[in-house]
Amino acid sequence: MTVAEDNQVAGTDSTGLLLRCVTRLFAELQQRNFACCDVQSATQCVILTTLQREGDVTLTHLTRTLNLDKAWLSRSTDDLVEQGLLIKAPHPSDRRALLLHLTDAGHQAARDLDTQLNRQSARVLARLPVEDRAQALRILEGLTQALQAELNGDDACTPRST
């Protein structure tokens, strides 16, 4: 069965299955790269790349962005501080908040990891036929926008209370 038949998207079951499969495989590939990262955990790699992309943020903001437990994230950031990759400082305008800032070594570690992840993505794309690569990139851009719109929308699933 193909995903599209007569320009109509196939049933949501197969679409959902394909999206979950792509997500799972991509996450597994990323985890393998994180294992080669010079820091102690995949969570720390995600922290580094997020701070490299977003700049200085508060611990609370990072907790929400990464959807991680605050205590877990605090321990992970403490480890990055010990490794000399991150600075935790009082926020200049909110004394209750901690501002997270990458050190020069932290920026370098994040750039190295981004380079590694980008090379991996290029290898994956190179496995597609040459004539399909540009279209695959356009589709990924559109899918990224659609996923972001879904996250920002009011139709998102809300957890059930038990």
From TrEMBL:
InterPro entries assigned: HTH_MarR-typ, WH-like_DNA-bd_sf, WH_DNA-bd_sf
Entry keywords, A to Z: DNA-binding, Plasmid, Transcription, Transcription regulation
Pfam families membership: MarR
SUPFAM superfamilies for the chain: Winged helix' DNA-binding domain (SSF46785)
Entry-linked PROSITE patterns: HTH_MARR_2
Any GO molecular function: DNA-binding transcription factor activity
Lineage: Bacteria, Thermotogati, Deinococcota, Deinococci, Deinococcales
Name this protein carries in UniProt: MarR family winged helix-turn-helix transcriptional regulator
Domain HTH marR-type: 15-145
